[in-house]
Amino acid sequence: NAGVTQTPKFQVLKTGQSMTLQCAQDMNHNSMYWYRQDPGMGLRLIYYSASEGTTDKGEVPNGYNVSRLNKREFSLRLESAAPSQTSVYFCASSEVAGRQQETQYFGPGTRLLVL
Amino acid sequence: GESVGLHLPTLSVQEGDNSIINCAYSNSASDYFIWYKQESGKGPQFIIDIRSNMDKRQGQRVTVLLNKTVKHLSLQIAATQPGDSAVYFCAENSGGFKTIFGAGTRLFVKA
Q: Which of B42, B43, B99 comes nearest A101 by C-beta?
């Protein structure tokens, strides 16, 4: 039982390049999330997927797209990377029973540097 | 407590002492609160949670206290160990999919 896994662990991009961050969970959770974490700041929600087949914008969606490939996998794509997207990206998953939120479990993160 | 900006507040404790980490939350409608531990280079790890119908919840060596009147949350760690050194942050949720995370407090345990 690996929990939440993310690939790659590290990535360096040049401005304008594109890439996709992969995330998978094996806890059979319905909901998945992508966050970014910048120094001295709390996690900020980029996009989330309440359930398979749905995605919604979070607090900072500009410059990103997501795909909920199936119940297990949720990918984050940067179409044209910018230096402002240098950050650590975390994927998380949770169960949501009706309106009630449950604990989110996080992956180990992807450290992205955009030059 | 929580911080804005690059520098996290730091709490330094002696090994074996108790630690208390505080958090002021922002939304009076929040009804679910979580404490996470984040070690350097790793993802946040769930420690303990509490819902608004409770004032206190205990886990193994950890206790969370919730004061809804002043919108304050605290995490108490008993008999702090070197392995407890990490950044601790609180999170609040008012139902639904958007959780607000604090920036965190860095706990440093002196051997």
A: B99
